[in-house]
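step=encode ok
step=design start
structure_in=
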């Protein structure tokens, strides 16, 4: 399965596009980070590491995870 990573230098988000079915949750929770109209659509530098961790925990499809 293809995946992409995005980092703010502290936290790395792993995104699996094939699993993503509820991107609206991301956009509503952290619109400054997730904008599907832009490339890249995930800009983790626009939020604190803790905000990113909290938001990824809310991902209903499991498409987002924190890479260790």
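sequence_out=
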């Amino acid at each position: 399965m293809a995946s992409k990573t995005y980092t703010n230098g502290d936290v790395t988000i792993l995104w699996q596009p094939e699993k993503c079915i509820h991107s609206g949750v991301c956009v509503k929770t952290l619109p400054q980070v997730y904008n599907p109209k832009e490339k890249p659509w995930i800009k983790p530098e626009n939020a604190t590491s803790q905000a990113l961790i909290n938001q990824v925990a809310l991902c209903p499809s499991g498409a987002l995870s924190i890479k260790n």
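step=design ok
step=annotate ok -> The beta strands are 4-7, 12-15, 64-67.
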